[in-house]
Amino acid sequence: MINSNNGFFDKFGGKYVAEIIRRPLDDLEAAFNKYIHDPEFLEELRIIQRDYIGRETPLYYAPTATELLGGAQIYIKLEGLANTGAHKINNAIGQCLLAKKMGKTRIIAETGAGQHGLATAAACAKLGLECVVYMGEVDVRRQQPNVATMEMYGAKVVPVTSGSRTLKDAVNEAMRDWATNFKNTHYVLGSALGPAPFPDIVRTFQSIIGEEVKRQAAERNIDIAAIVACVGGGSNSIGVFTPFIEDKNVRLIGAEAGGIGPNVGENAARMTGNASREGIVQGYKSRFLIDEDGQSMPTRSISAGLDYMGIGPQLAALGESGRVEFTAILDKEALDAVKFFARNEGILFALESAHAGAAAMKIAKELPKDKGLVINMSGRGDKDIFITSPVFRPEKWKEFLKAELKRLENNEDIHDAEIMNK
Amino acid sequence: MNLMSHLIAGFPDAETSIAIADALVKGGANILEIQLAFSDPSADGPAIQTASTIALEKGYSTKQGLAIVKQIHERHPETPIYIMTYGSLAFTPGVENFVKMCKDAGVSACIIPDLPFDGDEGLTEACKKHGLENIPVAAPSMTKERLETMASKGFKYIYAALRAGTTGSETTIDQATLDFIDTVGKGGAKVLGGFGIRNGEQSRVLSKHVYAVVAGSVFVNIVLSNADDAEGRKKAIAEIEAKAKEIAGN
What we know:
A: alpha/beta; Rossmann fold; 3 domains; six-stranded mixed β-sheet; four-stranded parallel β-sheet; 16 helices; globular; B: alpha/beta; 14% strand
C-alpha cells in the first residue's frame, strides 16, 4: 500500500469536504498526476533539491551512541541539515513549484510551530510567489523566532483568533481562504493528511528522504533492521518509511507525543493509549483526539510540531495493519534524548525529532549489533532554544532575557548595554 | 416567500436560542435551520465559528443541542427543522444513530456539507430509513458534470450555496448565479438558496428563483454585535424578529 486507492488507504483517507472546496482539490489532483510524470518538472525539482535544499542529506553513523546503547548500529538521517532546518522544505518546494506550473501566483499555508510556515515562506521567496501563512494566535505568541523569520522571507503571517487559536484553527482558516481564492491561490498543506490528494502529494515529495536512506544503505552495505521517526501529522515518517513499506525485514516505528501522561488532554497520541478514536475531521477519515460526540479535544506536547489531534490516514492504516509500530514518548524522555545526542554525537535534535531519538534509545538493545537502526532526525533543535533553555539553564536564561528586554526598552546597542560592563 | 433561517443551538445560551427561534418564526421564517456547534466548522465563516465556540463552551454539543431542538420543535410543531452540522458529529456516534437522535428531537432533514453526496457514510440511506431528508449542499464552483450528477440523484431538496466562498460575504444575483440555480433544480429538487443574504431587497430578488431563501449569518451577527447581557440579548431578539420580517417581506 503506497499510493492511495482513490484517496483511501484501507478505510482511512477520503475527501470529506464541502463542495466549495471540492473543485480546487480535484484540480490539484489532476495537475499533480500530470506533473509528477513530467520529466521537465522532475528535473527542475531535482536541481532545486540539490542546490537550494542541499540534498542529499547525510546518513550519519553515530559511534558513541551505538556503543552506549549497546545494540544495533545507530545511523541518523540528518534532515535537519536541509535548508530552513527541517524536512518541511521538501514538501514546500514541491508544492510551490507545482502551484507555479498551475499558474497560481499566491500561496497560503497553515503552521503550528512555524516550521512548515517557514519552509513555505522560504520556498515562495525563492520561487517568486506571494505568501500568506495562517498561524494560531497562541502559536504566534509562543513561536516568535519563526514568525520573525517568516516575515524576513517576505511572508504575511496572519494570527488566527478563532476556536482554540492553534494549528487546527489555522487549517480551518486556510481552507476558508482557499475556498474563496482558489483561482489564483494554492494551499500548501504541510503534512501527509487532510483531504485527498494531499496525503499522496505530501508523501510523494517527502519520500526522497527514504529513497536516499535506501541508496545510502546499499552503497555502504548497511543492513537496516529498523527505522524510527516521530509522528505528528506524519510527513517525515511517511517520507522515510515509504520505500521500505514493502520490505518486511525492516521494522518501521513511529514515535508519537506522549506529553506528560496517558490521559485525555495530556498528550497527542492517536495510535497508542486510549485518548483517541476513529473520526472524520478536517476533510479526512483517520484516528483523532476527539470526544464521544466528535468534538476535537485539547492536545499536549512539549514539541509544538507533534501537538495535533489527527494523524495522516496512511499511517493510521499502516498502524492498524501492524506494518508500522507506534510508541508514545514522554516530554521528559524527548528532552533526555536531546541531551544524549547533543553531548555524545554533537548533533542537536529538534524536540519533535528527539521523540524518534528517544524511541531508538529504548529499542537499540533489542536489535543485533550487525544491523542498522536508522533515526530520522526530521529537524535540528536551534529553533527550540526558548523551550530547552528554561529547562536546562533556567537562571542564566532568565538573566539573559531580562537584560535583552532592558536593552531594547532603553534602545541601546549591544556594545553599550549594561550586561557588557559586568 | 419561503424563508429558511438559521440559528445555533445553545448560542448565546439555551434560553436565548429558543427565544431566537421564536423571533424567527414570528418574523416569517417557515423553516428553521438549526446548527449543532462543532469545534472545527471549516465551511462556515468566522462569525459562525465564534458562535459555535461559545455554544460549545457552554456545553451544547449533540445531546444538549438536540434537547434545545426538541423544545423548539414542541413550540413550533408546524415549522420543519433542518439540522446543519459537520460529518464528525454524525460519524462519531454512528451515522444511523445520529439520524435517529435527530428524528427523536423532531428534526425533518439533515444538512452536513462535509459528507459529500457520493461519499456520505450512509447518511442518505439512514435518513430515508427514518423518514428524514438528506439535503446536500451545492456550490457554484462545482464542475457542470458533478453538479448534474448531484441534481439527478433524486434529492427532495438541495441547498445552493450562492457564492464561491463561505458564509458571511455579500451576494450578488447575476446571470451565472441564476444559471447555477437552474442546474441545481434540474432533477426536480427544490432549491434552498442562500449564503450572504443581508436584506429584504436581496431576498425578494432571489425568492423568485428558489423554493426557499436561506438567511444565516445575518442573524448570528446580530447576536454577536449586541452585548452579552440580559439587555443585549433582549435587543438582539427584537432585531432578529425585525430582520426576519424584512427578509421574509412581511
